[in-house]
Write a structure and sequence with these properties.
Elements lengths: L5 E4 L5 E5 L2 E3 L7 H4 L1 H4 L3 H6 L8 E4 L6 H8 L3 E5 L3 H15 L5 H4 L2 E4 L3 H4 L9 E4 L7 H6 L1 H9 L5 H13 L4 E7 L12 E4 L3 E7 L9
Parallel strand pairs: 4-5, 4-7, 5-6, 7-8
Antiparallel strand pairs: 1-2, 2-3, 8-10, 9-10
Bound molecules: S-adenosylmethionine (SAM).
S-adenosylmethionine binds next to helix 4 and helix 7.
């Protein structure tokens, strides 16, 4: 039988998801070392998302999860709209954001992050502005190594199956239709392109790759 993660609150009211001996919380303070300017500008996601000549860039993180990637973008100066459709994950993220707003080290960054608890395929259609960047990090298929080493992935996989071909295409179409300058997609290092669409450029790390689709007129996921 599948284990269903449960939301629990500790004595300080801090939320966690618990299942099968695994506990998961949203915790932005853990990422503080990566937010230092000298480290931040080495982050592949920040390099992939960078837009030149825009003083206050706007990003949409269409698959926010626990908001860690969105935090990196916000620390790099983006205003970020975060879409998360799973209500339990969204509850952890909301909790982490509220705590970050009360933490002097994180409040300015968290002030640039706006959570929308909705499916991004719908939400991207109703944006009030054109974002500069749309970021997609849909669930990869599991690798044997992940389950043992990464609690976050282990828990997220109890809540969500890997993104299907149709799900990927719907996300990519919605991202492109929102009219950004670029779409950045996180993929497993050797994984196929999302929706089969060849990126303009990729930045590869040890485990993941960021595919960058520079948007020009006529680019669609069917290209
Ligand atoms: C791999 S996790 C993202 C991790 C995230 N980048 C981070 O830094 O924590 C994928 C998340 O995207 C969410 N998701 C997937 N498809 C979505 C959609 N169409 N709209 C909104 N959220 C979605 C899932 O519920 C899951 O929490």
């Amino acid at each position: 039988m599948d284990v269903v993660p449960q939301l629990v609150a500790d004595k300080d009211g801090r939320l966690a998801l618990e299942a099968d001996g695994v506990t998961l919380r949203g915790d932005f303070a853990r990422l503080l070392p990566r937010l230092r300017p000298q480290n931040l500008h080495r982050e592949l996601l920040v390099r992939a998302a960078r837009v030149r000549g825009v003083p206050s860039p706007v990003a949409v993180d269409a698959t926010a999860g626990l908001g860690e990637d969105a935090l990196l973008l916000a620390a790099a100066g983006f205003s970020v709209v975060l879409f998360e459709r799973d209500e339990k994950v969204a509850a952890l993220l909301r909790d982490a954001l509220q705590r970050a707003l009360q933490d002097a080290r994180l409040s300015e960054i968290a002030g640039r992050m706006q959570l929308v608890e909705e499916d991004a395929v719908t939400g991207l259609k109703h944006l009030e502005m054109k974002p500069d960047v749309v970021y997609l990090d849909p669930m990869f298929p599991a690798r044997r190594k992940d389950a043992a080493t990464n609690k976050k992935l282990q828990m997220l996989r109890m809540l969500e199956r890997p993104c299907t071909e149709e799900g990927a295409e719907a996300l990519l179409s919605a991202a492109l239709d929102a009219g950004p300058r670029k779409v950045v997609v996180k993929r497993p290092l050797k994984g196929p392109y999302l929706g089969g669409l060849r990126p303009s450029n990729s930045l590869a790390g040890k485990v993941v790759r960021y595919d960058i689709l520079t948007v020009h007129e006529g680019l669609s996921h069917k290209e």
